[in-house]
């Protein structure tokens, strides 16, 4: 195959690619913020006393971690409207990414909390902090420092996974590139 890509021929398409890149960045940032918030909440629930809520959250984590992201996305896009929950492709993509990252980050944060020495919990209690204050002010900061590399890796995976949302016609970077390629393949 002797065909070569000449970037000079792509210059007219930069506005479309940059618009797609901007949508991808927005989607990634919002999904990361939402997913990490859910992950921290889930880790707090799963690290606490065993109970019904912890088991339900554990079920959510296992279901999400054991299904493909594209299946989750299609369920949200095509399944939820049948239950009366209408949303745009962008809202569905964001929800799928948040739910997915929430499950994975729950286990990452929980691992960081579990390796926290018991003495930190006790120190917070001795200082008169409530269980919640001890968790937020004493236990969580060093736990997040320990798991920072794993969380960053998961956030990168979210950004890479954003290309899947082009399958539901959400106009992010992959969608823009596919559109340019399909429209202009014979011209380039």
Characterise the protein shown here:
With 188 residues, this protein is mainly alpha-helical. The chain has a single domain (34-45, 56-176), classed as MetI-like fold, CATH 1.10.3720.10. 73% of the residues lie in helices and 0% in strands. It has helices at 14-47, 52-65, 69-79, 89-114, 118-126, 131-161, 173-184. One of its GO terms (biological process) is amino acid transport.
Tally the beta strands.
Answer: 0
- Summed up, the helix count is 7
Shape, please?
elongated
CATH superfamily: MetI-like
SSE series: HHHHHHH
Q: Report the span from N to C terminus.
A: 15 Å
Q: Characterize the biggest β-sheet.
A: none
- How many domain regions? 1
Measured by DSSP, the beta-strand proportion falls in under 5%
- Average pLDDT rating: 88
Instruction: Classify the secondary structure makeup into a structural class.
Output: mainly alpha
Helix content: over 70%
Rounded radius of gyration (Å):
21 Å
Keywords:
single chain; 188 residues; MetI-like fold; 7 helices; 0% strand; elongated; transport; membrane; Amino acid ABC transporter; cell inner membrane; ArtM/GltK/GlnP/TcyL/YhdX-like
Topology at a glance:
Elements: H1 14-47, H2 52-65, H3 69-79, H4 89-114, H5 118-126, H6 131-161, H7 173-184
Summary of the model, kept short:
With 188 residues, this protein is mainly α.
